[in-house]
Structures are given as structure tokens and as C-alpha cells.
Amino acid sequence: MKGLAIGSERFVTFFRLLGFIGFESEDKNEVLNQIKSKVSSYGLIVIDRSVVKGIEKEIDELSMKVEPPILVLDPPYRVFETATSVESEVKRVMKVF
């Protein structure tokens, strides 16, 4: 299954490491056009939540009409940006005290 990641450079880079094809863009119209034109070519599409502000309705409507799932995600690395240290955040997430 080929996956497509759309969003900021950092978001796309994270998913490229997982084997996704990446499309870097923060322009809402460009993101929407990419999704519409490439939706049938992929098994999963993940989109950076920060690039869909203002086009949420269009994304929701499109995701109901097409076969591959379209997921709008917060960047996975964001959990560590606000942590005092990576070690403390891992302990919190893993429920280790």
C-alpha cells in the first residue's frame, strides 16, 4: 500500500521515513488540488492539520466520497516539542513513574 503525506516539510519528512511519498505544501488550494488529483493512486493519505485550516469542510466531503482513507493529523513530533525533556515525556506517555 502506497501512502501519501501532505503538509509542511517537517511533517512530510517524518512520514517519508515511514515509506510514504511526500508532497510539501502549506498552500490550501494546492493541497486540495493534490488530494483530488492523486486520491486514486494511494492507499492512505495523511495531511498535516496545520495546512487544512479553512478547507476542513472540503476535506471532510472528499474523504466521504473516495476509497482510500484521508486522515488529518497533528504532527507526530509535536508531543515532544512541549516536553521539558524527551525522557520525561516518554515516561509520561508510557505511564512509567
What would your notes on this structure say?
Strands 2-1-3-4 form a 4-stranded parallel β-sheet, with helices on both faces. The radius of gyration is 15 Å and the shape is globular. 42% of the residues lie in helices and 19% in strands. By secondary structure, it is an alpha/beta fold. It has a single domain (3-93), classed as ATPase, V1 complex, subunit F (Rossmann fold, 3-Layer(aba) Sandwich).
Task: Describe the SSE topology.
Layout: E1 3-7, H1 9-16, E2 21-24, H2 28-38, E3 44-48, H3 56-65, E4 70-73, H4 78-81, H5 86-93
Parallel strand pairs: 1-2, 1-3, 3-4
Instruction: Please indicate the count of domains.
Output: 1
Computed Rg: 15 Å
- Please work out how many helical segments DSSP would assign: 5
Q: Would you give the CATH topology?
A: Rossmann fold
Q: Order of strands side by side in the largest beta sheet?
A: 2-1-3-4
Write a brief structural summary.
With 97 residues, the chain is α/β, with parallel strands linked by helices. It is 42% helix and 19% strand.
Question: What are the main properties of this structure?
Answer:
single chain; 97 residues; alpha/beta; Rossmann fold; four-stranded parallel β-sheet; 5 helices; 19% strand
